[in-house]
Amino acid sequence: MGRTTARSAELFERARRTLIDGVSSPSRGPLNYHPHPLYMAGGSGGRMRDVDGNEYVDLMLAFGALVHGHAHPRLVEALQRAAESGALTATASEIEVVVAERIASMHPCAERVRFANTGTEACMAALRLVRGYTGRKKIVKFEGHYHGWADAYSLRSNMPGGPDVDSLGIPDGALEDTIVLPWNDAEAVEQALDAHVGEVAAIVTEPVMANLGVIPPADGYLQRLRELADAHGALLYVDETVTGFRLGPGGACARFGIRADVVTFGKALGAGFPVAALAGRADVMEALSEGRVLHYGTQNANPALLAVVDESLQMLDDAAYVRLEQLADRLVAGLRDALQGEAIVQSVGPMLQVYFTDADAITSYRDFGAHVDRDRFNRFVHALFERGVYTSPSPALHSVLCTAHTDDDIDRVLAAVARL
Q1: Is the Cβ–Cβ distance between 381 and 199 less than 8 Å?
Q2: What's the confidence (pLDDT) of residue 2?
Q3: Of 33, 39, 133, 146, which residue is the catalytic one?
Q4: What is the pLDDT of residue 225?
Q5: Is 39 annotated in the active site?
Q6: Of 239, 261, 367, 409, which is the active-site residue?
Q7: Which of 305, 355, 373, 405 is 20 to 30 Å from 362 at the Cα level?
């Protein structure tokens, strides 16, 4: 194709003199990319272009944040209008009421809403909330589930084979109340709750394991977590940072029929901007009232950004989700045909991941460690770069579709895979 990435190479060499690994987050750097990251100049719709002028169908979409793709005209216009009134007031505003009401009308578990800025921050606030509301210290979390990089969550979140603790610099005491269990194993949860009667504040779960690709819940598993939480007086906290407003207007909770006590949102909620939220049962959320469970934030409910969020949520009507499902069905079916005998494709709605494996399915963190060929996936994605398709080279992440993708984009991806 005569493709060059010379400008990206130059920027990488320059960036390493001032930025750690030449980037601002490890997943964007040499941990996953070789010989250097691709430096992007911008995008439009379902495609983006790098600084060398190469165009890609974008299946990463800012790790799922761009539910309407790049620079959607309605969102650009909403931001421009809002910015004319200033970037920030840090006061109460009408738009935060409007957007909170919209979230509550869409998501079945969002009786009350509190805005935050990032998924990590919302998850940190939710952790303090479940402990403050219940008066208990311990939480149950699951292998391979990521709830941001706060200390108490940073245990066995990343790919198998590394250290159990996710990071240097975390004191032992920060993790002593974190109980980590295999996911999709209800019996393990029941045994842990029986061993810690009256101590567990919440069961914390992603509704779809999204930090190791796309691993759906087993039939009835999430409902069983609800039953176990009720039986032990614990809360069920469903982290919808990845799935919220991506798998339908009511996220995974509506899709799977889950009654969560606390939910968190990020990524698709902000439509590309730093807007996140925690929400949940009115009585649980009221523990935040008057700072009893403390959660501050100068940038919380930034009115300019919430104007974009409001426009984005209005665009996420039934037709938008139907279209996303149709595109996903085409892409997944085409990938399965093209990769038959070499890889499997797992998906939930417009979220999907290719696993190079000899297993029939990947159902857990331990399955991933035992059966997924990570290096082959990385080579596969780098080959796709050469053919005009962009997604994360990490097998622990996943691809997504947006409302701006077209049938031509799907055709281009499938043609690229067929040429490998």
Answers
A1: no
A2: 65
A3: 146
A4: 98
A5: no
A6: 239
A7: 405
Mean pLDDT of successive 10-residue stretches along the chain, which has 420 residues: 88 97 93 95 98 97 97 97 92 96 98 97 98 98 96 93 91 95 97 98 98 97 98 98 97 97 98 97 97 95 97 97 98 97 97 97 96 97 97 97 98 96
pLDDT at 295: 95
Q: Choose among 179, 180, 242: nearest CA to 216.
A: 242
146 is catalytic: yes
Token match 């919440």: residue? 202
At residue 88's C-alpha, the angle toward residues 303 and 85, to 5°, is 75
3-class state of residue 258 by DSSP: coil
Enter the pTM of the model. 0.96
Rounded CA gap, 352 and 331, in Å?
Answer: 9
CA distance 401 to 327: 8
Radius of gyration over every alpha carbon of the chain, rounded to an integer in angstroms: 21
3-state helix, strand, coil in the chain (%, to 5): 40, 15, 40
Question: Is residue 34 within 8 Å of 383, Cβ to Cβ?
Answer: no
227-234 long-range CB contacts below 8 Å, 24 or more apart?
228/186, 228/189, 228/190, 228/193, 228/203, 229/202, 229/203, 229/261, 231/193, 232/193, 232/197, 232/198, 232/200, 233/134, 233/198, 234/134, 234/136, 234/140, 234/193, 234/200, 234/201, 234/202, 234/203
pLDDT attached to residue 269: 98
List 151, 267, 355, 367, catalytic entry? 267
